[in-house]
Design a protein that fits this description.
Helices cover 40% and strands 19% of the residues. The protein is built from 30 helices and 31 strands. Helix 11 packs across helix 12, helix 12 packs across helix 13 and helix 25 crosses helix 26. Bound molecules: pyridoxal-5'-phosphate (PLP). Pyridoxal-5'-phosphate binds next to helix 9, helix 25 and helix 26.
C-alpha cells in the first residue's frame, strides 16, 4: 500500500535521524519501549504536551532541538538501537510464515468501528476498540496478512471533565489530521476517495492509513470538500449523534470499507466483522456478486464461506437495530442491485420482528463462523441465539468462542519487561508458558521494587490529575496543596477503572458505607481506592454513578483514600493496571462478555478480584486471585446482596490480611507469591498472541480454504450449496420418523467394550424426495459427568432400504434410557460443504 510520505515532517528532521519520520508514523513505537523512550528523550515536556503523539511533537518542535539531538552521542546510541530493533522486527520470520506458508499471499480484512492503538490516535471509546487495536498489533507480530478497516473521527471520542459537583462534562476536541500518526492513502499518486450513496445524494470518503508494525489499517473520513457540511460531520464522533448518524456511519464503514479495499485492488480471502457495526460489508459484497451475475442465494453462500462474526454483547438490547423505514431510506437505492427483492434483503436482518432490521442478524446470516469472546460468553451467546437457530438445543447452537486477550508489549510496564528480560529468556515475549514459569526465580525484593516504583508512578499521575481537576474547579490553595498527601505509596491500592455503565456497578463497594469506612480507616492496615472511567454522554444513569462516586470521594472519612480520576484513556489505563495491587471488577453477571483490563493488571503483577464473569470465570483459581461469588439462580437483587457480602468478606478476611501478613510493611512475601502465580498462570493465556493464533486456526485458515473451494469455477460450489439448501427447504417436510423400537427387556442388553450395558434401537424414516444420504439419523441423550450434563450423539447406521424412500437405521445406546424421557432420535440434513452442522434450521425429531 502506498501512503503519502510527503508530510509536514519532510525536511524538518535532520538526515542523521531520518528514521524518526517512519517511526513516528508507525504505531510500533507505542509498544516498543525503546522507541517510546526515544521520542520522550527528544524533549519530555514536548512529548507530554503533544499527548504522546510523535508526529505532532516533531512538527511543532523547534528545529534547534532536533539538530542538537543529531549531535548527541547518547541519544544517537539509543536511536541506533531502536533502528536495529525496528529492522529486526520487520525482517524476522514470523509464526504465520512458518506455519502457513501456503497462505502468505492471502489477506484477512478486519472491520471495526473503533480501534484503540494508543492515546495519540483517539478513535476508541473503550474495551471493544482496545481489543481491536491489540488484535491488530498481534496480527502484525505474528505475521498475518492482515488489513484493518475503520473510521476516522475528527473529534474522536469525548474528553471527560468532572466538575466540583461530580458532574461529567464531555469536551470535544477537533483533531488536525495532518498532525496525527496517520497518512493519506495514495492510488496512482492521487489521494484515494470512495463514494457511498446516502439518501438522495452521494457522499465521498477519503481514505487514510495507519501503519501498525507490519500491517495497515484504513480509516475512512467524510470530512472532505465535496460533501455538504452535514455529511462532513457524519464521521465527526465515535458513537455520537442519533440513529441517522449511526446508520450513516455503519453504511460508510461497511460499504465504504469494501470500496476502499477494491480501489486498492485488495480482494481479501477472509472478512472479519468485529461486532455487528460493520455488517453492511455483506450488502456491498452481495451487490458485487450480483453485478458479476451470481444469483442472490449463491452470493449469500459465497460470502458466508469466508466471513467471521465476533459478537461482544451478551444482551439483545445491546445490538444495533434500525427501523425498516430508515433502512428503506438508506438502502432503497441499493435494493435493486442485489439481484433479489427488498423483502429478501430485509429478511437478512430479521427474525420474527418485521418492523426492524437487526445488524446482528445480518452479521449472523452472512457469516459462516460466529464466536463470543470468553467461554462463558460463548455459552450466553448460544442461549441468546437459540431462537435464531430454530430452537436448537442450546449446547448445539453453532456459536464458538475465543477468549479475549491483551497485547503483552503494549500493556506491560517497561520496568517489568526489563526485570523479565533479566531473569527470563526473550521467549517470554512470545507468551511462551514455559518461560513464564521462571518468574518464580525473580528475587522477591527485586520484584517488589518494580511493583513499588509502578505504584509510585501511578500515585504521581493520580495527584497530578486531581490537582488539575481542583484548580479548574476553583478549589482553594489549601485544598489543592492537600492533594500532595493523597494516596499512600505503601497502602494496599485497589483500582476500579472502566466505562461507567450501570451493569459494571462502580458503587457496589459502597453499599454498606459504614463498613467501608471501617475498612479504609484502619491506620495499621491502610487501604485506598482509585476510580476512573467515562460514561457515554447519553447514559444518564452512568453519569449518576460518577456523581455518586465523586460524592464519596468528598466525604471527610474518604479524603485522599478514595479518589476519582478524570478522562480515563489508554495512557491512564497503563498507569492504573501497572500500578495497583488489586484490580477490582464487579459487573452484574453475565453482562461482561470478557473484560480485558484485569488481564492487563495480571501482566504487571496486580491481582484480580472479580465477579466470576467474562474471562475471569475461566481464568480464576484460588491461587491466582479472588472471586466475588453468589448464587446465580437467585434474582438480581438477592444476587447483588450476596455479592456485596462476598466482596466485603474477601476483602476483610483474605485480601487485606494477606497484604499485611507481616508486621514489616516492606515485606510482602506471601503477597508476592500470589502475584507471581497470577502472572505465571494468566499472562501466557490471556494475551492477544494466543487469541490471534486461535482466530487463525479456528477461523481464518479454515475460512481461507472454504473461500477457495466456494469460488472455483465461477462459484460453482456456492451455487450448488444454495440449490441444495433451497431444495431441502421445500422438501424436508416429507421427512418423517415412522417408527422407533428399542429393546428394553434385560435379556436384550449387551455389554460394550467399556463395560456399559447397552441396547439396540431401530428407526424407520420416510424420506420422500429427499435423498437419505443427505441426512444423518442420530440418537441424542445427556450424560452426567462431574455434575455437568453434556449431550451425547449416537449416529445410527443405515441398515436397510425398504424402497420408495423408506430407510431403516440402527444403533446402540445405554440400556437404562427410555425414549421421550431420556433420549430422542432425530434426522437432520448434512453436507460436507456446510461450515457447521446446523446451517439449515431443519430437523425432524422423535420428540
Ligand atoms: C483495556 C481498556 C478498556 C477495557 O476494559 P474492561 O476490562 O473491558 O472494562 C477500556 N478502556 C481503556 C482505556 C482500556 O485500556
Amino acid at each position: 500500500m502506498k501512503l503519502n510520505h510527503n508530510s509536514g515532517l519532510m525536511g524538518k528532521i535532520p538526515k542523521e535521524l531520518e528514521l524518526l519520520v517512519e517511526l513516528s508514523y508507525n504505531m510500533w513505537f507505542s509498544w516498543n519501549e525503546n522507541a517510546t523512550r526515544l521520542f520522550r528523550e527528544i524533549d519530555s515536556q514536548s512529548w507530554e504536551q503533544a499527548g504522546h503523539n510523535p508526529v505532532k511533537m516533531l512538527m511543532e518542535m523547534n528545529d534547534r532541538i532536533l539538530y542538537e539531538k543529531a549531535q548527541d552521542e547518547q541519544f544517537l546510541k539509543l536511536y541506533r538501537k531502536v533502528s536495529k530493533e525496528w529492522e529486526d522486527y520487520q525482517r524476522q520470520i514470523t509464526w504465520f510464515d512458518r506455519n502457513f506458508p501456503e497462505h502468505t499471499d492471502k489477506q484477512i480484512a478486519y472491520f471495526s468501528a473503533e480501534f484503540g492503538f494508543h492515546e495519540s490516535l483517539p478513535i476508541y471509546s473503550g474495551g471493544l476498540g482496545v481489543l481491536a487495536g491489540d488484535h491488530t498489533k498481534s496480527a502484525s507480530d505474528l505475521g498475518l496478512p492482515f488489513i484493518g478497516v475503520g473510521l476516522l473521527y475528527k473529534k474522536g471520542y469525548f474528553q471527560q471533565k468532572i466538575d466540583s459537583q461530580g458532574r461529567q462534562h464531555a469536551d470535544l476536541h477537533q483533531y488536525e489530521f495532518n498532525k496525527l500518526p496517520i497518512r493519506e492513502v495514495l492510488v496512482g499518486g492521487e489521494e484515494l476517495i470512495v463514494p457511498v450513496e446516502l439518501p438522495g445524494r452521494q457522499a465521498h470518503l477519503k481514505v487514510w492509513g495507519v501503519a501498525v508494525g507490519r500491517v495497515h489499517v484504513l480509516l475512512l473520513d467524510a470530512d472532505i470538500a465535496p460533501n455538504s457540511e452535514w455529511d462532513r460531520d457524519l464521521t465527526a464522533q465515535l458513537y455520537g449523534g442519533n440513529q441517522e448518524t449511526r446508520i450513516s456511519q455503519e453504511l460508510m464503514l461497511g460499504i465504504g470499507g469494501i470500496r476502499a479495499l477494491r480501489a486498492l485492488n485488495i480482494h481479501p480471502q477472509v472478512y472479519h466483522m468485529n461486532e455487528g457495526h460493520s455488517a453492511f460489508i455483506s450488502m456491498e459484497r452481495l451487490r458485487e456478486m450480483a453485478a458479476a451475475g451470481l444469483p442472490f442465494p449463491a452470493s449469500v453462500e459465497a460470502i458466508r464461506s469466508n466471513t467471521i462474526f465476533t459478537t461482544h454483547t451478551p444482551v439483545p438490547a445491546g445490538h444495533d437495530v434500525f427501523p425498516i423505514e430508515l433502512m428503506d431510506r438508506y438502502f432503497g437505492v441499493m435494493y435493486g442491485s442485489l439481484g433479489t427483492s427488498r423483502d429478501d434483503i430485509l429478511a437478512l436482518g430479521q427474525l420474527s420482528d418485521k418492523t426492524n432490521f437487526n445488524m446482528t442478524f445480518l452479521a449472523m446470516n452472512t457469516s459462516g463462523f460466529h464466536n463470543g469472546v470468553s467461554k462463558l460468553h460463548g455459552k450466553i451467546s448460544r442461549q441468546m441465539f437459540q431462537s435464531f437457530f430454530g430452537g436448537l438445543p442450546v449446547h448445539e447452537v453453532p456459536v464458538d468462542y475465543v477468549t479475549n486477550g491483551v497485547h503483552l508489549e503494549t500493556w506491560m510496564a517497561p520496568e517489568m519487561k526489563l526485570l523479565l528480560d533479566e531473569y527470563l529468556t526473550k521467549s517470554w515475549r512470545n507468551a511462551s508458558a514455559q518461560e513464564w514459569q521462571n518468574i518464580g526465580l525473580i528475587p522477591n525484593e527485586k520484584f517488589w521494587n518494580v511493583r513499588k516504583l509502578l505504584k509510585e508512578k501511578l500515585i504521581a499521575l493520580a495527584r497530578k490529575n486531581l490537582i488539575e481537576q481542583k484548580l479548574r474547579n476553583g478549589a482553594g490553595d489549601a485544598a489543592v496543596e492537600a492533594v500532595n498527601n493523597y494516596l499512600d505509596p505503601r497502602a494496599l491500592t485497589i483500582g476500579f477503572a472502566r466505562r461507567f455503565a450501570t451493569y459494571k456497578r462502580a458503587n457496589l463497594l459502597f453499599q454498606d458505607i459504614d463498613r467501608m469506612k471501617r475498612i479504609l480507616s484502619d491506620p495499621k492496615r491502610p487501604v485506598q481506592l482509585i476510580f476512573a472511567g467515562k460514561a457515554h454522554p447519553a447514559d444518564y444513569p452512568g453519569q449518576e454513578l460518577i456523581r455518586e462516586i465523586y460524592r464519596i470521594t468528598q466525604m471527610p472519612e474518604f479524603a485522599g483514600k478514595v479518589v476519582l480520576l478524570e478522562n480515563y484513556d489508554m495512557n491512564m489505563a497503563r498507569y492504573l493496571v501497572q500500578g495497583v495491587d488489586v484490580w477490582l471488577n464487579n459487573p452484574r453477571r453475565p453482562m461482561e462478555a470478557s473484560g480485558t483490563s484485569g488481564q492487563k493488571a495480571a501482566l504487571n503483577g496486580g491481582i484480580n478480584f472479580s465477579v466470576l464473569d467474562g474471562w475471569w470465570e475461566e481464568g480464576y483459581t484460588d491461587r491466582n486471585g479472588w472471586a466475588i461469588t453468589s448464587q446465580y439462580d437467585a434474582d438480581w437483587k438477592a444476587q447483588e446482596k450476596q455479592e456485596v457480602e462476598s466482596l466485603y468478606k474477601v476483602l476483610e478476611n483474605e485480601i487485606i490480611p494477606l497484604y499485611y501478613s507481616s508486621d514489616n510493611r516492606d515485606l510482602h512475601d506471601r503477597w508476592i507469591t500470589k502475584a507471581k502465580t497470577s502472572m505465571i498462570m494468566l499472562s501466557p493465556v490471556y494475551n492477544t498472541s494466543r487469541m490471534v493464533m486461535d482466530y487463525t486456526m479456528k477461523f481464518y485458515t479454515p475460512a481461507m480454504a472454504r473461500a477457495e473451494r466456494f469460488k472455483q469455477n465461477r462459484y460453482e460450489l456456492a451455487v450448488r450449496v444454495a440449490d441444495f439448501k433451497a431444495f431441502l427447504r421445500i422438501h424436508w417436510h416429507q421427512v418423517k420418523i415412522m417408527s422407533l423400537w428399542d429393546w428394553t427387556g434385560e435379556s436384550a442388553a449387551e455389554i460394550n467394550d467399556s463395560g456399559e450395558r447397552i441396547k439396540q434401537i431401530k428407526v424407520i424414516v420416510k424420506y420422500g424426495t429427499v435423498w437419505y444420504k443427505d441426512s444423518v439419523v442420530e440418537a441424542l441423550y445427556f450424560s452426567e459427568q462431574d455434575g455437568d450434563w453434556s449431550p451425547v450423539k449416537v449416529p445410527l447406521r443405515h441398515v436397510y432400504d425398504h424402497g420408495e424412500g423408506i430407510h431403516e437405521f440402527a444403533g446402540w445406546i445405554p440400556v437404562h434410557l427410555k425414549h421421550q424421557d431420556h433420549y430422542s432420535v432425530r434426522v437432520r440434513p448434512v453436507s460436507g460443504d456446510f461450515a457447521h452442522p446446523f446451517e439449515l434450521p431443519l430437523m425432524t425429531s422423535s420428540r
